[in-house]
């Protein structure tokens, strides 16, 4: 099976292992207390959970495309997005290399 | 003896829950989707099921990749709601049916399906987005949830899920209590949540899938996971769970209702079949 299909990343074991700390950090954002702690100090929160400088930088830059290239699961990106107030259309558009406006324009055509 | 009285295939999506909670059922964008559930709800009121057996997928809310089960069965008396990151919705916990669920566990393992058995299993939008559209939210009908890994590859084949459906039917028909059971398969239909084709749907394939699921499901069970992802997106591969529902219904079925809309990023299907 291909591990990239139509420009999308198949979430393989290899990707899951590479992005594990980032996904694990995102998974903790399922509780209100953790979301508050993350919002107060994103980098410190991530460092405390074993994320690398590269992973901390990807989240700091809201580089959703970079996070997918790093191997993250889209479902964990949605949890980070929920904690920082960025919804799916904006995340998805970014992973496609588009702004939200460009994405809506593409959809309309 | 318990019987399978029918099956429901339905998409699920967090946005459905948000729209429902906000009372947007009659807004132009949502009305075709929500009104599409009305005949399904009426059918459920007529056939009076005692139990819903729901084959669904968790979206990394109950389970994380530290230990990710391929199949997982909820045998608890209650199923809590998972906080998916946006906070919990105003819905009560769902009742389960431990007696049936443990019977199902024994029967599945005897049939060489080996789910992880979960006495606690919180549910996400994979169940809770569509359920309020089909029943009152005082949850009179208990739910036995069966989660399938369709997220972290390798994931089970479409054929495996179709065969799982036959094993579900066998379990139901060997349950000694009189129970009228509706089997659900939920997920899909086509959607792509990331990458170059973000937001792409395939309405032609969605409708062909629903056609063939009803009348000739075996060839659908023979398609590879790669073919499902090429046609319907890496996330749209969830649609293979509809095959478990169809496999539980036996050879011929009668269609009660069908609906298809696509208001957001997901091709959103609904299919009600009677045995």
Please give a structural write-up:
The complex is a heterodimer of chains A (109) and B (275). Chain A has 109 residues and is mainly alpha-helical. Chain A is built from 9 helices and 2 strands. In chain A, strands 1-2 form a two-stranded antiparallel ribbon. The termini of chain A are far apart. Chain B has 275 residues and is of the alpha/beta class. Chain B is 33% helix and 19% strand. Chain B is built from 11 helices and 10 strands. Chain B has helices at residues 14-21, 31-35, 38-47, 98-110, 125-128, 131-134, 158-173, 203-215, 218-221, 225-232, 242-247; strands spanning 3-10, 51-56, 71-74, 78-79, 94-95, 116-118, 143-148, 180-186, 254-261, 268-274. In chain B, helix 4 crosses helix 7 (158-173). The radius of gyration of chain B is 17 Å and the shape is globular. The chains are: A mainly alpha (109), B alpha/beta (275). Chains A and B meet through strand 2, helix 2, helix 7, helix 8 and helix 9 of A and helix 10 of B.
Number of helices of chain B: 11
Oligomeric composition of the shown chains: heterodimer
- What's the shape of chain A? globular
Order of helices and strands of chain B: EHHHEEEEHEHHEHEHHHHEE
Shape of chain B: globular
Structural class estimated from helices and strands of chain B: alpha/beta
Gap between N and C termini of chain A = 32 Å
Number of helices of chain A: 9
Radius of gyration of chain B: 17 Å
Strand fraction of chain B equals 15-25%
Radius of gyration of chain A: 14 Å
What's the overall average pLDDT of chain A, rounded?
97
Largest two-chain interface? A-B, 45 and 34 residues
């Amino acid at each position: 099976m291909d591990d990239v299909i139509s420009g999308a990343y198949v979430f393989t074991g290899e990707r899951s292992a590479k992005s594990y700390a980032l996904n694990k950090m995102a998974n903790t954002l399922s509780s209100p207390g953790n979301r508050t702690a993350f919002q107060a100090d994103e980098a410190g929160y991530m460092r405390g959970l074993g994320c690398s400088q590269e992973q901390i930088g990807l989240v700091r830059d809201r580089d959703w495309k970079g996070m997918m290239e790093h191997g993250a699961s889209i479902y964990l990106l949605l949890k980070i997005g929920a904690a920082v107030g960025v919804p799916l259309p904006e995340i998805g558009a970014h992973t496609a290399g588009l702004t939200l406006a460009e994405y809506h324009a593409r959809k309309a055509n | 003896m318990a019987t399978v009285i029918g099956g429901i295939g339905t998409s699920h999506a967090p946005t459905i829950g948000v729209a429902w909670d906000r009372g947007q059922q009659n807004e132009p964008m949502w009305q075709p989707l929500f009104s599409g559930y009305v005949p399904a709800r009426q059918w459920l009121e007529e056939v009076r099921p005692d139990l819903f057996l729901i084959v669904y997928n968790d979206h990394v809310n109950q389970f994380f990749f530290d230990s990710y089960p391929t199949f997982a069965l909820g045998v608890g008396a209650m199923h809590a709601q998972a906080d998916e990151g946006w906070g919990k919705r105003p819905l009560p916990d769902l009742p389960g049916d431990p007696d049936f669920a443990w019977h199902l566990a024994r029967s599945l393992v005897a049939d060489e399906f080996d789910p992880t058995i979960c006495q606690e299993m919180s549910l996400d939008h994979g169940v809770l987005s569509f359920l309020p559209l089909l029943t009152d939210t005082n949850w009179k009908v208990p739910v036995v949830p069966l989660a399938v890994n369709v997220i972290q590859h390798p994931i089970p084949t479409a054929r495996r899920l179709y065969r799982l459906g036959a094993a579900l039917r066998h379990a139901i028909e060997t349950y000694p209590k009189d129970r009228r059971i509706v089997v659900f398969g939920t997920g899909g239909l086509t959607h792509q949540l990331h990458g170059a084709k973000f937001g792409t749907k395939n309405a032609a394939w969605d409708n062909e899938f629903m056609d063939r699921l009803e009348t000739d499901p075996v060839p659908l069970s023979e398609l590879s996971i790669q073919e499902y992802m090429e046609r319907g997106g890496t996330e749209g591969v969830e649609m293979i769970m509809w095959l478990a529902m169809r496999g539980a219904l036996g050879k011929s079925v009668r269609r009660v209702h069908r609906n298809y809309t696509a208001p957001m990023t997901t091709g959103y299907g609904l299919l009600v079949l009677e045995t």
